[in-house]
Write a structure and sequence with these properties.
By secondary structure, the protein is α+β, with helices and mostly antiparallel strands. The chain has two domains: 254 residues, Conserved hypothetical protein from pyrococcus furiosus pfu- 392566-001, ParB domain (Alpha-Beta Complex), CATH 3.90.1530.10; 130 residues, Conserved hypothetical protein from pyrococcus furiosus pfu- 392566-001, domain 2 (2-Layer Sandwich). The chain is 31% helix and 25% strand. The protein is built from 14 helices and 21 strands. Helix 3 packs parallel to helix 4 and helix 4 crosses helix 7. It starts with a strand and ends with a strand.
């Protein structure tokens, strides 16, 4: 099953300055203004590698990487290890602690049923990441995956290491505290490697990067000599970790007017619907968390509350039962496709569809005219993610948002053996 090994990490040296000013969020959630702020705070911020700019930006990232290596801003360690990465944070007044391990994982085709996806991907994003791998020969950000460890072996190794002082510990602007340790003893590494040897891994975040790594491996003509193209850097988290938090990803409709009455007329057979004041939005969604409840907001002081009729449940498009039971699958099939005519190709190419994890941003996007309407949904559960993956199926793109995001730049992987 899963084959993992220690990583000889590429990391920032003291020459780069404070590590908190060198790391960044994942590339796909960084707005232009945030990128500028990161670079202005520290010229060595990894965002210059992870999200390069310029006419030939991927080549520019490669030049910057080589410059930083030559100047001792970055270095690759001699002895590999498995890193322990912890995030401590609060959501809605409740404290959480999430802990994972960072290592290299052998690439496997999804058909091998060792590394399992749960979500569809977008073509443009995969091409972007492939170009970056070609230009730099690096993984700057880690794929986030889940595993099950009923024996508690990995948990025990993590506990031993986290009793020690961390290599890094800092709190970011979102009040998330990040800590890093390194397991490099032969005993500790072997215990973790053996514990995962009979496990499947479920990708939580980073589908585009994993598929990109598979594509990179197949294109032998672009692989630098001596590159380790068989492995990818991952952060692995126990599926039963109490710190796992999944936010919903709301759907924004652009360049397509959406009228409440249109939805009422077209969806009456499948949904119970009523118009409610906007002030009741949060409570309405929370009350309907287990009942496939949605909210349509297209401006003004009210919204359309939509609750799927359980007797209308059916298998969607010959997909699995697990897929057909998802809130997001029902929204896409019954509302976006059937009622609004936004088909799968349209969604995949983001012609009329955009995404946001923030309910407030979704509402504001409609109010300021950036979007014509917003469909607001509840979060997908971790148990549902596992069920879809085990069924060999994939959720619609952008179905999950694991929070908080892993920091890019704490541990990096240069593709050398």
């Amino acid at each position: 099953m899963a084959v993992i090994k220690p990583i000889k990490a590429l990391h920032f040296t003291e020459k780069a300055g404070n590590i908190a000013d060198c790391v960044c969020p994942p590339y796909d959630i960084i707005a232009p203004a945030e990128r500028e702020a990161l670079v202005s705070k520290n010229e060595y911020n990894v965002v210059r590698l992870e999200l390069p700019l310029g006419e030939d930006r991927y080549a520019e990232a490669g030049k910057t990487l080589n410059s930083w290596l030559n100047d001792g801003i970055l270095e690759r360690e001699e002895k590999g290890g498995i890193y322990v990465y912890r995030e401590e944070f609060a959501v809605n007044g409740k404290d959480y602690c999430l802990t994972g391990i960072i290592c290299l994982v052998k690439l496997c085709e999804f058909s091998e049923r060792i590394v399992l996806p749960h979500e569809e991907t977008l073509t443009k994003a995969k091409q972007d990441r492939l170009n970056l791998m070609k230009g730099t020969g690096c993984n700057f950000s880690s794929i986030y995956s889940l595993y099950s460890d009923e024996s508690g072996t990995i948990e025990a190794e993590i506990a031993k290491k986290t009793a020690e002082a961390p290599i890094h510990r800092f709190t970011d602007d979102e009040e998330v505290t990040h800590s890093l340790w390194k397991i490099d003893s032969e005993e500790g590494v072997n215990a973790i490697v053996n514990a995962l040897a009979d496990k499947q891994l479920f990708i939580a975040d980073g589908h585009h990067r994993y598929e990109t790594a598979l594509n990179f491996k197949k294109q032998s003509e672009i692989i630098p000599e001596g590159a380790d193209y068989d492995h990818i850097m991952m952060t692995l988290v126990d599926m039963d970790d109490k710190g796992l938090v999944v936010f919903p990803t709301h759907r924004l409709i652009v360049d397509r007017k959406v009228d409440k009455q249109e939805i009422i007329d077209k969806c009456a057979d499948d949904f119970d619907m009523c118009v409610r004041p906007l002030s009741e939005l949060n409570k309405a969604l929370s009350d309907g968390e287990d009942g496939k409840t949605y909210a349509l907001y297209n401006g003004g002081d009210d919204f359309l509350l939509m609750t799927f009729k359980p007797e209308k449940q059916r298998i969607i498009d010959n997909r699995s039962e697990a897929y057909s039971d998802l809130d997001v699958s029902i929204l896409h099939s019954f509302v976006l496709e059937n009622a609004l005519g936004i088909d799968k190709d349209n969604m995949a190419n983001q012609i009329n569809l955009r995404y946001t994890r923030s309910l407030d941003d979704a509402i504001e996007s409609v109010k300021n005219g950036a979007a014509d309407a917003a469909f607001l949904i509840n979060a997908t559960k971790v148990s549902q993610i596992k069920a879809v993956a085990l069924a060999g199926d994939k959720m619609p793109q952008k179905s999950t948002y694991f929070y908080p995001k892993l920091k890019t730049g704490l541990v990096m992987n240069i593709l050398k053996k």
